[in-house]
Amino acid sequence: MNDSVEIDRAEIDPKEAANLRLLRRLVTALTVVMIGGLLVLIVLFVTRFPTVSAPVSYDLPDAITLPEGVTPTAFTRGRDWVAITTPDEILIYDAQSGDLRQRIVIE
Fold first, then answer.
1. Given Cys at both, which of 47, 66, 83, 98 links 70, Cβ 3.0 to 4.6 Å?
2. How far does CA 20 lie from the centroid of its chain?
């Protein structure tokens, strides 16, 4: 009784073996290119985004008095002003004092 196991080795055509080697090299090249591209993106993100040197203050005035009958619809803040948009106009207030600076009518 012989316990040896025969392994059925499929014979590979030399043309197919060359194609497999080419395919293996292409996959390796693609992997290297993708890793390189990812590293370039990381370097660009790190070098292009500026660091914030001074924090921006978003302090709001304690109170803003809107004119009688005005309904605010939107709000935005600039460096030294606060704007409140209503359906008919834009009201611009001083950011420190809360005093009305300007009224811009929307046509």
1. 66
2. 40
